Each structure stands twice: as C-alpha cells, then as structure tokens.
Amino acid sequence: MHWDQFSVPKIYIEPTAEMVIVRFSSHPQAKNGSIAPTSLPASQALAENLIAKDKN
Q: pTM of the entire structure?
C-alpha cells in the first residue's frame, strides 16, 4: 500500500439545497482531476433535485 493512493476528503457545500457531501477516495488515482468529471455533475444534480423538491 502506498500513501499516494489516498486523497484528502473533498467537501461540496450547497447552502441553498441545505446539502453537504463529503467524498473520501482510496483509488489508485484518487486525485480530484480523475473523478471530478463524474462527481461534480452528480453533486450538482443532487443539489438541483433537492432545491426543486423544496419549492414544491
């Protein structure tokens, strides 16, 4: 096991949706650039869904 396989947790805060997501990674390439193209749009979609539900 190599220490470079681990990443500092990433925190996504969306106050309008009253949402906090903390992402922990332990993949061989757990760098943000490797998974951000997937995780950031997913986080945004969750926030948009929560905001839409709150309006109804």
A: 0.63
